[in-house]
Amino acid sequence: MLIREYGYRGAMCDAAPGPADVVAATPRPAPGPAVDPIALEPVDEVMVTTLVDNVYDALLPGDERTRRAGFDTGHAAAPQFEGGKTATGLVAEHGFAALVSVRRGDTTTTLLFDTGLSPDAMITNADRLGVDLSGIHGVVLSHGHFDHVGGLAGLAGRRGARTLPMVVHPLVWTRRRLAVPGQDMFELPTLSKRALNGEGFEVIERRHPSLLVDGCVLITGEIDRTTEFERGMPPAHQAWTGSGWEHDPLVIDDQALVVHVRDRGLLVLTGCGHAGAVNIVRHAQRLTGVGRLLALLGGLHLGGPAFEPVIPPTIEALTAMAPELVVPGHCTGWRAQHALAAALPEAWVQGSSGTTYRLSAA
C-alpha cells in the first residue's frame, strides 16, 4: 500500500485541547502552508460495504447503486426448527466498520475503514457475507474511540502471517473518559500501540493528509474546523493530559477517507464525523480541489441534545452541496436521519449492516 505524505497543517495540528473549551472549539483558519490541491487520482469505481452499523434491516430494498443483505446471509444450528437450523442474518451493534474497494482500470485495492465495537461482530458479518478479510491491503482508523477499533481483536486472527499496514492519527492512543454529572465515570477502552505492533500490524502515524493506493485514496488527517456551528463534544468528554483530565471537545484524531470517482465527484466516508460533516466535506474539497460532492457515508454524530441544534445548519449546508447519495449511519441519530430524509429524499438512503454501495465513473 503506497503511502504518500503531505506537509499540510490542519487547524490546531500542534496544540492539544486545553481548558479554554469555547476558544478551543472556535473555528479558525488553518495556520502555515497548505499543499492545495492534492492530486487525488480519479477511480473508475468504488464499492463501500458496511460490515458493522447500528442497524440491520433484512427487509430494506436495494436499487442500482445499493445491494442489501437479506436473511440468507447466515445460518446456525437450532434443533427447535425442522431441518435443525435457522437463518441468522447479520449483527448490528453500536459501532462502525466499512470495507472500501477502489478500482482503476484492471487494478482493485481493498481497505478496511474502522472495525466496529466488539471483537467478533465484524468478522462474523464478513464470514456471513463471504468477505475474505485476509485479502485486505490495509486498515485505516477514523479515530481512537473503542466503538471503531474493537474489531481489531478479531481481525488479528484473520490477517495471516503477513504484515498489515494501519494508518492512524498519532492521538489515536489518547486516554479518554465520559464524566457525565450524576453518573459513574466511564473510562473508554484505549488502544495499545505495543499490542498492535506485536500482532504484526505496521502502524503508520500521520497528522497530515496521506495518499494511499497509488494516489487513489486520501486520508484527510486533521480536519480544519471552519464552520460556526460544529463545535465538537460536550464537557463530559474528557482526555488525560498526563497530569489530569480536561475537556476534549475536538477529538483531534478524527479523520475521513476520500475517493474521487471520475467525472462525478468525491465520496467522503466518515467514522463518527466528530469534526462535523460540513467541516469534513469542505476540508476534502479544499484538499483535492474537487468541488463536487457525490456521496457522504458514515456516522455524522448528530444524535442527542448536545448535537441536535447542529442538525438544521448541517442540512442547509449539505443541501446546497446537492450530493447524489447520503447514507448517514452509526451515531447520526434518529432526528437527523428523519431531517436528512426529508431534505434530501432522492439522495438519502437508510444504512444497514451488510449493505454495499457502488459508485462508478460517468
From TrEMBL:
Classification via PANTHER family: METALLO-BETA-LACTAMASE SUPERFAMILY PROTEIN, METALLO-BETA-LACTAMASE SUPERFAMILY PROTEIN (AFU_ORTHOLOGUE AFUA_3G07630)
Extent of the signal sequence: none
Family matches, as Pfam families: Lactamase_B (PF00753)
Domain of life: Bacteria
UniProt key word Cell membrane: no
This protein's name: MBL fold metallo-hydrolase
InterPro entries from the UniProt entry: DHPS-like_MBL-fold, Metallo-B-lactamas, Metallo-beta-lactamase_dom, RibonucZ/Hydroxyglut_hydro
TM spans (from-to): none
Source organism of this protein record: Pseudonocardia asaccharolytica DSM 44247 = NBRC 16224
Gene Ontology molecular function, alphabetical: hydrolase activity; transferase activity
Keywords: Hydrolase
Domain annotation Metallo-beta-lactamase: ranges: 106-184
